[in-house]
Amino acid sequence: MAPPQDTTDHPDYRFTLANERTLLAWLRTGLALVAGGVAVATYAPDLGVRWGSAVVALGLVLTGLGTALAGYRRWRANEMAIAADRPLPASWLMPTVAAAVAAVVVVVVVLVGVEVLGR
């Protein structure tokens, strides 16, 4: 017996569900960055200079917020492309989040270096 033929005009639901899973992954990443910022603010009071942990924590929280918002924006753009049967738009999200996290890591390395050299 042959599988039933799809005669509807809507896109395959598997693409929409995969897009939703991708959105959830970006939201988890954003939440993890925010949690990391809270942890830095709570458990690393100085980081070499008086304002060090506040800068790192704020950087992580803002990066997490940006990741979650940009993930939603990407999900919407992909949904529109899927519905219109167009190619998915190019994304700047991955390199931007990677650069932001790398910048925070550089700041942490500098601050830890100041802490170690200051002893």
Automatic annotation (TrEMBL):
It is a multi-pass membrane protein. The chain crosses the membrane at residues 23-45, 51-72, 92-114. Residues 14-79 form the DUF202 domain. The keyword Membrane applies. It is found in: Endomembrane system. It comes from the Bacteria. Pfam families: DUF202 (PF02656). Its main location: membrane. Keywords: Membrane, Transmembrane, Transmembrane helix. This is YidH family protein. It comes from Blastococcus deserti.
